[in-house]
Every structure is written in C-alpha cells, then in structure tokens.
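Hey,
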Amino acid sequence: MTDQDFLDRANITVFKGEIKNIDTQKKEISLKGVSGKIPFDKLLVAWGSFKKRLNKDYSNVFYLEDRYAHAKCHNDILKANKIVVFGSTMDAYQVASSMREYLNSIGYNKTEVIILHEGKSEIAKNMGDTVSSAIEDMLRKQGVCVIEAESVYQIKGEYKVDEIHFRRRTQGNGDPLGTRYFIKPDVVVVEDGVGAPR
C-alpha cells in the first residue's frame, strides 16, 4: 500500500470500480456508476488479487496486507503467548522466521511461534521436498514449531479464534496417523498465498 501523496507526486490517478467499456481508439474508459468518460494517454489495468482468507472474520486473525495491518498485528503479538502462522508459502515461512527473530531480539523468547499448514507445503510442491525440509529444519533450529497437518477440520470461536483443530499428516511422538490435535492461539496470521481477483 502506498501513501496518497506518493501517487499525487507521481501524477498517478487511481480509479476504483467496475469497468464498463475501454475504447482504445478514442483512449477513453467508462466505469459503472461514474458519469462521463475518463480519458487516458496510457492505461494500466491492475485486476489485483486478494489474500486467501478464513471463512469468517475474527478479532485475533491478521492478513498482513498493508502497514496498518502490520502495526495492529505487532501490538497484538507483544501480548501473545502463542502465535500461529497459517500457510505454507515462502511468505508464511518468512513471517514465522521474522516474528521469531524479532520476539527473541526484544526478550520475548517464551512466546511460541507455530507455522501450521495443510498437506504438502507450497515450497515442497514448487521446489521439492529437499528444499522444503531444509527450510523447515532452519525454522525449527530458530525456535519455530512447524506442523504439517493432514487437515484443519475445525476452527472454534465466536469473535476470536479460540482453538484450531487438525489432524497431523506425519506421525509424531509415537501417535498414530490421523490423531486429532488442537492449538489455542492468541494471534493467527494467515499467509497462505493469493487468490484470483474478486
């Protein structure tokens, strides 16, 4: 997200809305709900994308899309005992690593940082199991708990996420595959990639 004054200084005008028509011959664009046509010399249409979201809004769930979300999340992680980063992308791994590093640097070593993802990670799918395992080993050495879930089958909580219920994908602690677990997070950061434009 950029500051409005940056756009003004760069002489960039942003129009948000649904495109009704683009006339490339006359170099005009029409938006639904906007009277008149908008002339252009050059046109950049940014369809955009959005971060994948949970099915419901919760007060302790964050999507790090802009500096305001970062600031609010920062304030909440300072009060948290258990932070769950939900996702398997490189962004999710980086968020978990950066949180752990930052919390350690300010003496919050006891705050738990957990990365939880369903199925095979995006890193494993795109770069292979060896790379994925190496990154997850680095995270573990840093103090991040990495949980590869077979499925996250329930999120409990009315206004905030109270519990995340899941089954483990890999056998751990001698438990049989499919054993059910749950985490009680104080903060959840969802970093599970982007979806198609809305």
